[in-house]
Design goal:
Layout: H1 7-17, E1 32-36, E2 39-42, E3 47-50, H2 53-56, H3 65-75, H4 88-99, E4 108-111, H5 123-127, E5 131-134, E6 137-141, H6 144-159, E7 164-167, E8 197-200, H7 234-250, E9 258-262, E10 269-270, E11 273-274, H8 285-295, E12 299-303, E13 328-331, E14 342-346, H9 348-351, H10 367-382, H11 385-406, E15 410-416, E16 419-427, E17 432-433, H12 436-448, E18 451-452, E19 454-456, E20 462-465, H13 473-498
Parallel strand pairs: 3-18, 7-8, 7-9, 9-12, 12-13
Antiparallel strand pairs: 1-2, 2-3, 4-5, 6-14, 10-11, 13-14, 15-16, 16-17, 16-20, 19-20
Bound molecules: 4'-deoxy-4'-aminopyridoxal-5'-phosphate.
Cofactor: pyridoxal 5'-phosphate
Main location: mitochondrion
Subcellular location: Mitochondrion
């Protein structure tokens, strides 16, 4: 049992000594003292089903025994050296991670020179001047923002261009560099950011100008009708034309350094508003966007911070679902199952540009982080986590679609695998967002019945479901029953108020 400070004592400390911008969920924030797999426990021992996994940070389960054992064993051996020395874990992990890249990226190639910090992972072979590495090389860092920072730097140095494109509504991090590609007013401070950054129209088939029932690659269709066939999505071309306009009107000589895209826009809510909300691009869009960027000299960067490591079910990486092959992949969050660990994976040719100056990251690739990362990969393989995301996620989506058909306030259910969004509306036809008070009531009700869900989107009206990837069908049944009850309570109340 928990014997630490009381809830009230901790609230006082929080108000007094933590930055005021640190927000907490729920009218009365939860004090969480323990976690096990898909479960969280508060100070009284009450159990909650965690459908938010610390914003997809917990991938294989809270305190997964195998990951905990790997971290403990490494902590008892060696915590840290920085990468000025060699240690076995970083080499093993870099190799395993590079090997997770799809298809022909696994082909070995000969690299002639060793120049950058990135290739520290192959120093012995490099001494010989010629060595074999997987086509991908890895730079370990500590957070998603750091990874995207580095990706932006790589894109600019490699292409010798400055301009970057991201999509409105995207979230790529909070460092001053990447704050600019996070395209959302609620995450903006009154300081100059986003120099040379252009935000393209968000290809959102539900709230955007174009899109309909066949547009998304999801087991559930949008409620919006469209004339497109299941294989050919007209919305894709329309949003593509908007991207072309960015090249035409905004980019110097139409040239670009890089495009950042999440494979499914995710991210979280802060304050009154939020971002993301699990927006899925129309089928075929990203492929065409990548082609356009490459024709104009840029590189394509996949932000897999939320969509990587099998979460979308069908594939290990979210970008594979779009049939694209990025030049740079950034990853974090679930990669360390809650341990600070992130990476940039790219080609040796792109990585080489870092040899132009010194580049260093004190904690990136430390032995404990690498031991954790390796054990996460082991668990994903041994427990067939990706398959679980596909099976349980598809079942979840189908059950949620039934709620959508039952309750008018559920405007849209979308997603893939265990990356799910439920957009709540006050009017199905106009898709006006459900008002904040009503949304909060439904969301708090779920918490009171023992289910923790995230929230997101510009108007904070999307329920976000991104649980630890170990949840099962019984958990889904429980969560759907809780949601059904909360929605019924809301609907009955709205009816009473209308009469
Ligand atoms: N990219 C995406 C898609 C994210 O969701 C986040 C975090 N919400 C980041 C980047 C930034 O990661 P971090 O908070 O670890 O800096």
């Amino acid at each position: 049992p928990y014997t630490g400070k009381s809830f009230d004592e901790m609230s006082t400390t929080r108000d007094k000594h933590l930055v005021p911008c640190l927000k907490s969920y729920y009218k009365k924030p939860l004090l969480i003292t323990e976690g096990h797999m898909q479960w969280l426990f508060d100070q009284t021992g009450r159990r909650y089903l965690d459908l938010f996994g610390g914003i997809v940070t917990v991938s294989v389960g809270h305190c997964h025994p195998k990951v905990t054992a790997a971290a403990t064993a490494q902590m008892n051996t060696l915590w840290h050296t920085t990468n000025i020395y060699m240690h076995p874990k970083i080499h093993e992990y870099a190799e395993r991670l590079a090997d997770k890249m799809p298809g022909d990226l696994k082909v070995k190639q000969t690299v002639i020179r060793q120049t950058s910090a990135i290739t520290y992972t192959y120093p012995r072979l490099a001494e010989k001047g010629v060595f074999h590495v997987p086509v991908q090389v890895v730079y370990f860092v500590n957070s998603g923002s750091e990874a995207n920072d580095l990706a932006m730097l790589l894109a600019r140095l490699y292409t010798k261009q400055f301009d970057i494109i991201s999509f409105r509504n995207a979230y790529h991090g909070m460092s001053p560099y990447v704050m600019g590609i996070t395209a959302h007013s609620t995450w903006r401070f009154d300081v100059p950011v986003a120099q040379g950054v252009h935000h393209a129209m968000n290809p959102d088939p539900y709230q955007g100008l174009w899109g309909g029932k066949h547009c998304r690659d999801s087991p559930v269709q949008t409620t919006r009708d469209c004339a497109c066939s299941p294989d050919e999505c007209e919305a894709s071309s329309k949003y593509y034309e908007q991207l072309e306009e960015v090249f035409k009107y905004s980019l110097p000589r139409g040239k670009v350094a890089g495009l950042f895209a999440e494979s499914i826009q995710a991210s979280r809510r802060r304050g009154r508003h939020g971002v993301g909300g699990t927006v899925q691009f129309p089928k075929g869009f990203l492929k065409k966007a990548y082609e356009l960027v490459r024709i104009n000299g840029g590189v394509c960067i996949a932000d897999e911070v939320q969509t990587g490591f099998g979460r979308t079910g069908e594939h290990f990486w979210g970008f594979e679902g779009h049939g694209v092959r990025p030049d740079i992949v950034t990853m974090a969050k679930g990669m360390g199952n809650g341990f600070p660990l992130a990476a940039v994976v790219t080609t040796p040719a792109i990585a080489e540009v870092l040899g132009q100056a010194l580049h260093f990251n004190t904690f990136g690739g430390n032995p404990v982080a690498c031991a954790v990362g390796l054990s996460v990969l082991d668990v994903i393989q041994e427990e067939r986590t990706q398959e679980n995301c596909k099976v349980v996620g598809t079942y979840f989506l189908q059950e949620l679609a039934k709620l959508r058909d039952q309750f008018a306030c559920v405007g849209d259910v979308r997603g893939k695998g265990l990356m799910i969004g439920i957009e709540m509306v006050s009017d199905r036809a106009t898709k006006a967002p459900m008002n904040n008070k009503h949304f909060t009531d439904v969301w708090e009700d779920c918490k009171n019945m023992g289910v923790l869900i995230g929230r997101g989107a510009l108007n904070g009206n999307v329920l976000r479901i991104k649980p630890p990837m170990c949840i099962n069908k019984e958990d889904v049944d429980y969560a759907v029953a809780v949601l059904r009850k909360a929605l019924q309570t809301h609907t009955d109340k709205a009816k009473r108020q209308a009469n």
